[in-house]
């Protein structure tokens, strides 16, 4: 796997591309270091990676369980330590599901998605980050 970063302007704005070259992710630093609020911050990308990794697996498992998902909204919240480097110490994933979904199946699917199949979870938790999750069916 390989990604590419390209500096876009005189500030600290980058454009990232991965396997699909026509899809770009805008990445920018904080205004304190010259950022212009033109993209997400690198640590936000870490939370997005965890949330999307777990969500892809969650949806796949629920679909195999023949659950009728009409919506999925995910909120990932990270706590960071105060001193540099400001790494995450705890992260929580909240899944909000819509549709005709059995609560017991959703609980099992969430556990498998986060704790067994999500490789981003495994990398972060191996570094000592406490990762929790919950879900609600709306």
Overview of the structural elements:
The protein is of the alpha+beta class and 138 residues long. It folds into two domains: 4-33, no CATH class; 42-137, K homology (KH) domain (GMP Synthetase, Chain A, domain 3). The protein has helices at 42-64, 103-117, 119-126, and strands spanning 4-7, 13-17, 24-28, 68-80, 88-100, 130-137. The chain has a three-stranded antiparallel β-sheet with strand order 1-2-3, with no helix packed on it. Strands 4-5-6 form a three-stranded mixed β-sheet, with helices on one face. A hairpin with a 5-residue loop joins strand 1 (4-7) and strand 2. The longest helix is centred in the middle third of the chain and has 23 residues, at 42-64. It is globular, with a radius of gyration of 17 Å. The mean pLDDT is 96.
Bin the helical content: 25-40%
Integer tally of domains: 2
Sum up the overall morphology in one term.
globular
By secondary-structure content and strand pairing, the structural class works out as alpha+beta
Run of helices and strands: EEEHEEHHE
Radius of gyration: 17 Å
Cα-to-Cα separation, first versus last residue: 37 Å
Number of contiguous helices: 3
- CATH topology category name of the largest domain: GMP Synthetase, Chain A, domain 3
The average pLDDT value, as a whole number, equals 96
Give the number of DSSP strands.
6
Low-confidence stretches: none
What is the assigned CATH homologous superfamily of the largest domain?
K homology (KH) domain
CATH classification class of the largest domain: Alpha Beta
Q: How would you sum up the major sheet? A: 3 strands, antiparallel
Strand percent estimate: 25-35%
The CATH architecture of the largest domain: 2-Layer Sandwich
Spatial order of strands in the largest sheet: 1-2-3
